[in-house]
Each structure stands twice: as structure tokens, then as C-alpha cells.
């Protein structure tokens, strides 16, 4: 890849930090959501997650092992502003935690790329204002962002306003799969997205007007989207459906930022469906002329998250159906059963879709500066799997498509693998694992162990891409050998941890029982002799 290309890896606050109520941190919507039974697989929570709050130095050591150029992580809004409202309280211990993290990264020559929002909204803002349904969130978010620029901006030069706002809007306010768990019937997702887009623009302008000249940083947004390929490329109907797929995912947020308004196809489809449902106005809000001008151009780079591809075809939904984002764009998604799918049902390994997505961005939005902010694959956990051959294949395939996209003239400057650690995967709990490092959650110390993919990725970074095919094959063999050795260490450590647990729990219990039995026998003895 080109000289100066940035290689990195990422994670997010709620998924890894734990310490959910320690050192002055306020509750987030994910704390509230996971503490309700039935919301998350096996009722698991991120209360302690990977204990990342206490293991910063250990995890930075892993980053050094990988030889990454950058680390993408998020700041927990309620950790530094417990109620989400700046005038009410600022938590100095939370600020100190992120200062220490940033300083440690820089001491180890690792660039911090910081997301201001990876889904953990302060619960107080949800309870008092209805979260992203309320326009007041724009000013609260701007206050929070400016506090971050003030405290960390002298050292952080790459800022992301929102990580995957699509998931926040759709899964939080339409399907209810994610916190805050609301099902607002076809209006909630659009309203939440509308306020997030405006909040993003306000923060960009705040940075531009107040901080940029002094701090010389960049501010962008991270949008996650799959690629939709028409099932029949010769069918205009299917090609139109594939276009709608990408516009209702990526275009929903990218179009206002790069062109000033929502995609025409979104306005047409949601407007028509709203009219058919007897509504006087579209469920998709509108931007004023002034807002369009204000929002357009508010991104110094585009963060792109991408995991998979699907085939798309036209599918009409009946008018009487309850309004929903998912029935607004009249299409169905299909997959090829031959595509590899090591993890969840939705995540198939389809590398060629990545190149097409990157080229779409180049063509649609004037070839913006791109950082890939999330790309990776998970496995379903049946047993510990350190020799993750499928992740190596996924990594190789998708990075190779970035190489092709660069040759096409796409302006990609960096790649962030997802993710550093196995971690809490939202409503899936700990059942899916994206980590390049395995975390033994059964061990109270939550030790980290490198998977084969960590060794393989390290070699890609060192070579800045792929040298000869023979050498790449050698990397594969070496990575698999290393993971076998690590597996033995893990087995030994697990046995020791199990023995320690026996020592700590079973022996005191047996000892207590012995004392109780002795007391009972003594009582009987004394009674008999009296």
C-alpha cells in the first residue's frame, strides 16, 4: 500500500471498559437496557465487560505487539459528564482516565483516533428528554464535544462525531433491539437520525470556528454500510432496488453531509408511503434551506465501516402494514449459500462488495478522504477458537479489495480492523467474538491471548500490505503454529484459574461445614453426658 498508509485496530467504551458505576461515572442507556431481563442474550451485561478501565497499560502493550499506527476508541459521555449536561457536573476522574489513555498511546507512538459517540448516551438525557428524539440533544452533544476538544484536543487530531448512527437510529428507535429499546413505528428512526446529523454539523462548526486554528485536527463521521448488489444486474428494477439499499443505509447520512439533503429516492419513497398511510406530512423530516447550507461540507474525512454484502431485489410491502423503516424501501435481501459465514447469520465474507462500496463513495461524494473505521468478522462461541483461519481469510480478502480500490483512484488513507478484543456485543452479549485477542471471561483477571489473526495482521502491517504470494502463505503457516502454542498456554492458565477458584470457594466452604458439623456433634455429646 502507499507509504504513510495508517494501520490500526479499534474498540468502543461500553463494549470493553466495564466499571459501569465506578469513579463517578453516570449510567448510560446501555446500563439501563442491559439491566432489564430479556433484552440481551443470556441477560449478560457490560457492567465489567473486558475490565478495560483497569487494563489500559496491558491493552496498549497488545497494540505495541501488533505494531499498529493508530487505535480507534470511543469516549464514554457519562464517564466524563454523568448526567450528560455540562452545567450539572463534570467528572474529573473520567477526564483523567482518558488523559492517561491518550498519553500512554502517544508515549508508545500510537495515534489516538477518538469517537465521541459509540452508542452510550447518558441515561438522564434519555429519561428527561427522550434521547435522540429531542432537538435539545444537539446542544447537549455540542457542549460535550467542546469539553472533549478542550481537555484532549491538544493531543487528539482525529475526531469522529458518531460511530454508526444508522444502528443508533434504526435499532434504538425503530426495531428496539438496542438501547433505549424503543419501537416508534416508522417515525423514530428518521427523527433520531435528523437530530444526529444536525448535532454532527454543529460540532464540526464548533471545532472549525473555535479549535481548528489552534489544534490543527480533523473531524469526520463514521458510517457503517453493507453493499447491495442487484440479484439480476440486467434488471432495471433490481438495479433500482440495490440503489435504494445503499441510499437508505449510507446515503441517509452521507448525502446531507456531502450534498446538503437526504437522497431523492428516500424522500420519494418515505413521502409516498406516508401519504398512503394517511399522514399529512412525510415521516422523513425536512431540512430548511439554511440547514442544508450549514450541514453540507461538514466532514474532513469519511469514516467507513463495512462488514458484508447481500444481493438485493424489489419487494413491495402492503400499504396496511405498520409503518417501519424496513418496509419503506421495498426490497428484499438474499445471500449466496456458498459465501463463507463463520459467525452470525448476517455476516458473510464477500470481499468484492467492499471495492464496489468504496468506488460508490468516490463517485457519489467527490472522492473524499476515507479512513476505514470498522472491518472484521466474528465467530459464534461454542468453544475457545484461537486458530481463527476464517478471520485470516476475511482479512486478506478485504484488505486486498482496498488495494484494488486504491488502484481505482479511491482516496483511502487508513484501515482499522475490528476489533482488538473479544468484547460485549450489544444485544448478543458475549456470544459473538470479533477480537484479534481472545478474552477469557471465566477468569476473574480476564487475561488476553493472541489469536492466529493477530500474528497475521502484524505481518501485514510490517510489510505495509502483501509481498510475494509465497511469503503470504508462510505468514499463514506461522500464524497457525503460534496459535497452537498459545492454546496450550490458555489451557494451562484455565486449569490454574479453576484450581484457584476451587481453593478460594470450595475449601473455605468445606472448612465451614466441618466446623458446623463439629459444633453439632459437640452439642449432642454434651447433651448425652448431661
Automatic annotation (TrEMBL):
Molecular function GO terms recorded: beta-glucosidase activity; galactosylceramidase activity; glucosylceramidase activity
InterPro entries named among the record's database cross-references: GH, GH_1_N_CS, Glyco_hydro_1, Glyco_hydro_1_AS
Reactions catalysed according to its record: a beta-D-xylosyl-(1<->1')-N-acylsphing-4-enine + cholesterol = cholesteryl 3-beta-D-xyloside + an N-acylsphing-4-enine; beta-D-glucosyl-(1<->1)-sphing-4-enine + H2O = sphing-4-enine + D-glucose; beta-D-galactosyl-(1<->1')-N-octadecanoylsphing-4-enine + H2O = N-octadecanoylsphing-4-enine + D-galactose; a beta-D-galactosyl-(1<->1')-N-acylsphing-4-enine + H2O = an N-acylsphing-4-enine + D-galactose
Stretches that traverse the bilayer: 505-526
Coiled-coil positions: none
Gene Ontology biological process: carbohydrate catabolic process
Entries under Gene3D superfamilies matching the protein: Glycosidases
Keyword field: Glycosidase, Hydrolase, Membrane, Transmembrane, Transmembrane helix
EC number: 3.2.1.21, 3.2.1.45, 3.2.1.46
Superkingdom classification of source: Eukaryota
Any Pfam family hit: Glyco_hydro_1
Active site: 374
Family indicated by similarity: Belongs to the glycosyl hydrolase 1 family. Klotho subfamily.
Protein name: Cytosolic beta-glucosidase
Species this protein is from: Nestor notabilis
